[in-house]
Amino acid sequence: MVHGGECSRWLLRLNCSLTPRQVLLSYCPVGVLLAAIGLACWWLGAQWVLPFAALEIVVFAGALLVYARHAGDREVIELRPGHLVVRHCHAQHVNEVEFASSRVRIEQRDAGSSLIEVSEQGRRAFVGRYMRPESRARLADELRRALNEPS
What we know:
Blueprint: E1 2-4, E2 7-13, H1 20-43, H2 49-70, E3 74-80, E4 83-90, E5 93-100, E6 105-107, E7 116-120, E8 123-127, H3 136-148
Antiparallel strand pairs: 1-2, 2-3, 3-4, 4-5, 6-7, 7-8
C-alpha cells in the first residue's frame, strides 16, 4: 500500500521475470540461431530441417507474444477522498469501477481463498487475482481499515 497525502493506493500485479522488452531481446538471438541452423541444414541437403525450424520460430514467437501481452496485467485500488477506484488491466483491456467510499462493502466469502468482492448498490468488482490466496484476507482487512479512517 502506498500513501500519498489524502490518497492510498494498492498495486497488485503478476510477478514476471522478464519485461516485454527483455523478451524481445532474448527472442531475437534464438530466432537467428534457429534460422541459421535451418539454412545450414538446407544448404547441406537436409531440406526438411528448414520448414521445421521456421515452424519452431513461429510457435516460439507466439508463446512469447502471449507472455508479453500479459506481463503488465495488474489491479490498482485507489482510495481518494470520497471514492474508491478499482482498475483491472488485462492485456490491453482496462476495466475501471468507481465506488462511493462511504457506501462500499468489502467481502470475502471463503476466508482467504476466494477473491475479494468490492460492491456498492449493485455494482461490484473482484480483486486479488494476482496475490497468493492466503494473503487476500490481509488485503481485505487493510481495505476495511482504510475505508473506516476519517479523511
